[in-house]
Amino acid sequence: MKLQRKNGLRATALGALAVSGALVLTACGSDNNAGEGSSTKPSAATSAVCKDAKGQLLASGSSAQKNAMDLWVKNYMATCTGVEVNYKSSSSGEGIVAFNQGTVGFAGSDSALKPEEVADSKKICTGGQGINLPMVGGPIAIGYHLEGVDSLVLDAPTLAKIFDSKIKSWDDAAIKALNPDAKLPKKPIQAFHRSEDSGTTQNLGKYLGATATSDWKYEAEKKWPAPGGQAASGSSGVATQVKQVDGAIGYFELSYATSQQISTVKIDTGASAPVEATSENASKAIAAAKIKGTGKDLALGLDYTTKADGAYPIVLVTYEIACDKGNKPETLATVKSFLTYTASADGQKLLSEAGYAPIPAEINAKVRETVASLS
């Protein structure tokens, strides 16, 4: 797929799998995982995104996209001097509440707005409503800490039973059947989940509900539904507990596993081989997503039941929630400027480098078009 760049920051198409040709924001290099910042001055093209942006922009929500947002904010503010973007990483639920209370310019959420949340948004979005802009894709990694076990395969029914406290020991017959060569200890499983409302929880629930219908009877909600287990705050909190506790298992975005060197589960989907949680494998699953929203709403439908070779099925798409109309005049230009950057080739390229997956090209083009039309 061709990438085009002309007269500054114009619309560019970025495929979920074709990120190698993406342009690099030259303002300040990248995150610590990829090397320290560069002293190269921003080019006129990268500076063009800053037009009319000014003042302070507050945003909050999804902790799933925190690592991506940290990179975006750092690079954007290095280019757009005089603009301050503050993203509070909390949870999808808290972000949507803040958005519908009018205290933030946009919110991050790992799940699309519910009908009642859209209705609430109309009180803030004068003459319009909140819409979903898919901005970050990636795998929900199932991280584990089990001394002596360097590789672990699980399938959906086994995962469901583990997180529902039906399988309680690592030497359970179901786990042994999937890992015949592993030396599984007779050790209690300590399953960790999110303590607060979380879109990551909801997306895991959607996967289990679609693929383990006999073993996961809960609705896919942001609040953890199953009894038992242990709770921790945010993806970072769950990852920290899994890192520290021998016998632990939990779920969080791949970037947390990568940064803390946490082992992740390969998923037996019925494909020719178990699938590892990687950005590339998540991209293969997300590439099949279809827009299910109407009008300017770009909410996506994901196929959690895919059995395609190399397609990692436990994925999420994180949305930025903004008003299609009725944005606050004092922050509208900055919201459009910042989201233009995050949806650009520059912004999307950073996702793969940070353990996320870029949004597929066709969908991302519509995101940029919609951001440009915000009013």
SS elements, strand count: 13
Q: Helical amount among residues, as a percent range?
A: 25-40%
The CATH architecture of the largest domain can be given as: 3-Layer(aba) Sandwich
Low-pLDDT parts are 1-45
The chain-level structural class is alpha/beta
CATH classification class of the largest domain: Alpha Beta
Largest sheet: 9 strands, mixed
What's the end-to-end separation, in Å? 31 Å
Number of helices: 13
Question: Could you characterize what this model shows?
Answer:
By secondary structure, this protein is of the alpha/beta class. Helix 2 links the parallel strand 1 and strand 2. Strands 1, 2, 3, 4, 6, 7, 8, 9 and 13 form a nine-stranded mixed β-sheet that branches. It folds into two domains: 175 residues, Periplasmic binding protein-like II (D-Maltodextrin-Binding Protein, domain 2); 145 residues, Periplasmic binding protein-like II (D-Maltodextrin-Binding Protein, domain 2), CATH 3.40.190. The protein is elongated, with a radius of gyration of 20 Å. The protein has 13 helices and 13 strands.
Question: What's the quick description here?
Answer:
This is Phosphate ABC transporter substrate-binding protein PstS. The chain is an alpha/beta fold and 375 residues long.
Q: What topology does this entry show?
A:
Layout (H helix, E strand, L loop, with lengths): L43 H4 L7 E7 L4 H14 L3 E7 L2 H9 L5 E4 L5 H7 L8 E16 L7 E3 H8 L9 H6 L11 E5 L4 H13 L18 E3 L1 H11 L3 E6 H7 L2 E2 L1 E3 L10 H8 L3 E2 L8 E2 L13 E9 L5 H14 L2 H9 L7 H13 L2
Parallel strand pairs: 1-2, 1-3, 5-10, 6-7, 6-8
Antiparallel strand pairs: 3-13, 4-8, 4-9, 4-13, 11-12
